[in-house]
Structure formats: structure tokens, C-alpha cells
Amino acid sequence: MWIAGVDEAGRGPLAGPVVAAAVILPEDYDIQYLRDSKTLSEKRREEVFREIQSSAVAVGVGQASTAEIDEINILHASMLAMKRAVNNLSVRPGEVLCDGNRCPDLDIQCSAIVKGDAKIPCISAASIIAKVTRDRIMRELHAHHPEYGFDRHKGYPTELHRIALEKFGPIAEHRRSFSPVRQCLNKRDRQL
Fold first, then answer.
1. What is the pTM of this model?
2. What CATH number did the domain enclosing 134 receive?
3. Blockwise average pLDDT, block size 10, the chain, 192 residues
């Protein structure tokens, strides 16, 4: 029975999609540095990402857009992205292990494991795939909107990002339901 690990990246940022990945590893995998993606350098994540892609039984990626995040909230959008990632696997798993304390709505047995990305290799692999995929999306967004510095903070609410948000205002990829973006919009409305 194949077991898929599932994790997401991008719940906290003010901009961009939330991205989830589902990974099924073979029993005999030999991938070094399988751990929570946040503990690896960007360079190391990219290396491990390629290794996972070449040796995994299956990799599925799903995302929920900024509009979906604003419409259904970040928690439900994260669950939706996870469900899409599992549905995008080329091999159907018999069980899903999900990082965190809740599972997406699946028709497969699913268990939530708190800090699973640090404990379970297939969840660690999903964590790395999700993070690298989302970082690439944010670097692409940076190419179109360099004034925000998305290549550096990836949409997280850093001081640099907050200053750019104040100066230039939100773009379509900013999450309007998130307080700093909403406050910026309200402030701009009052100035008009």
C-alpha cells in the first residue's frame, strides 16, 4: 500500500497562492536531507527537490489562488490545495499522512501529524516540493513586480514588504483578507 505525505507552503504570506504537495516515496528511497523544508538553505532545498522528483513514485502539486484564499479563508484554502495535490498524484495512495492537526476532505484514509514534516520522510519530501514550488512562483511574480522584493521575502510580511505595500499599494496577488493588506487598502480609500 502506497503512503503519501502531504504538506503546504505559504499560509502566512500577504501575497501569492498557498501551495501543497503530495509525495509517495519508494520503500528503498535514498534521499539525504529529508526534513522540514524550513531547516534547509534555499540551495539545498533545490538540490533535494530535484532528487525527490527523480526518485519518488509520484509527486502531486496543488494550489489555491489568492482569490480563493480571500473567498474561503487561508485554512480552507490550504485544505483545498492539499486535496488538489493528492488528486494530482499519478498513483493513488492507500493512506495519506498530513502535516499539521487536520486533514483535507479526502476519500482516502488520512491522519494528521503535528510537526510531521520533521518526523515523517514522505511529509518532509512534500514540505520541500511545496516550498520550492511556491518560491519559484514568487520569483516569477518578482520578475513582473520587482518593486515589492518578492524574490527575497516570498510574500511574507517582512519590513521590506510592508514598506513596499505602503508605497506602491497592493497588486492583484495580494491577499485582501489579510489585515496588513486590508489596512493598506482602507488607508488608500480614505486618502481618495
1. 0.95
2. 3.30.420.10
3. 97 98 95 88 95 97 98 98 98 97 96 95 97 98 97 96 94 96 83 60
